[in-house]
Amino acid sequence: MNGITRPFAFRSSDTPVLVSMPHSGLLLTPEVERGLTEQAKKLPDTDWYLPELYDFLESLGVGCIQANYSRYVIDLNRPVDDTPLYQTKTTGLFPNILFDSSNVFNEGKQPEQQQKEHYKTHIWQTYHTQIAQELARLKDQFGYAILFDAHSITANVPMLFDGTLPDFNWGSNEGVSCDMALINTLENTLDDRYHQVTNGRFKGGYITRHFGQPEHGIHAIQLELSQATYLDANELKHGVYKIDPHQQPLIKDQLQRLITSLLR
Asked: How many domains are there within the chain?
C-alpha cells in the first residue's frame, strides 16, 4: 500500500483564530485515481481556490490548516464512523456519488476496505488531531479559540438543495457550535452586495459540530461560500474552474474583513 505524504499543510496561529480548509485538496492516491470516472477526474466538488482567496491569513497572523488530498480520497468533514449529518441526501466519508448524482468510481473500482482504513488513520485522524492540538493551544494562550471552517460550493446543486444558494451560508449547528455574538459580528460585517443566510441548508459539517464547544471556550463557524461569487460563470458552463478576475478582489476583500472582525 502506498504511503500518505503530507496529508495537510499547517501554519500555527498568532491569534485566537484558526482557519480550516478540509475540501480544497487536489491530490489523489493511486488507488483512487485509477478508479475514478471521467467526470470525477475533473474533481468537480472541490472547494476551488480557497487557499488563493484566503492568502491574506498569514499577514493577519491567522493560522491555517489546509487539506492536500481530495475529498474523493476521504472527506475530512464527515464523522469517521460515517454517521449521516443531514436527513436529506448528502455524500459520505468515502463519497460514491458526485453532487450531480453520477458515480465517483467506475463499477468495482472503489478502494478496498484496507485502503480506506489507511486513509482514516493517515489522513482523517492526523488532520483532526492537528486541529484539536492547535485549538487547545490557542485556548490556553488566549482564553478562547475560534475555528473558522472555510468551504465553497457551486450555486446550484439540485441533489442537495432547491433553487440557488445565497452567496454566504453560515453554519453554527443551530447556534450550538459558537456564541451568537460571533455570528452576529460576521453577519453585520458582510457587505450588502452579498446575500447571506445562517443555518439554512448548511448548518455546519462534522468539524464545526465536533469542535464547537462554546461552553468550554472553543467556538466553531462554517462558511459555505457560493462559487458564483468568484468563479467565471462562462467557463463554469464548460466544466472549467477559473477565477473571475473582476470578482476575485471584491470577494478577497470581503473575506479579509470578515476574518479581521473576529480578531477584535
From this structure: 1
CA distance 67 to 57: 16
Residue 1 within a domain: no
Range of the domain at 233: 8-261
Tell me if 3 is assigned to some domain: no
The reply to whether 2 falls in a domain is no
Question: What sign for the dihedral angle of Cα 175, 181, 183, 188?
Answer: positive
Going across the sheet that includes 218-226, the strands are 8-11, 63-67, 17-21, 145-153, 218-226, 168-171, 196-198
Tell me, what CATH number does 129's domain have?
3.40.630.40
Is residue 94 assigned to a domain? Answer: yes
Digit-coded pLDDT (tens) for 109-142 = 999 999 999 999 999 999 999 999 999 999 999 9
Which residue(s) pair with 219 in the sheet?
146
Beta bridge mates, 171: 222
Question: Does the global pTM surpass 0.85?
Answer: yes
Going from the C-alpha of 32 to that of each of 29, 91, 134, 198, 239, the distances in angstroms are 5, 16, 30, 35, 21
Q: What is the pLDDT of residues 68-79, one digit of tens each?
A: 999 999 999 999
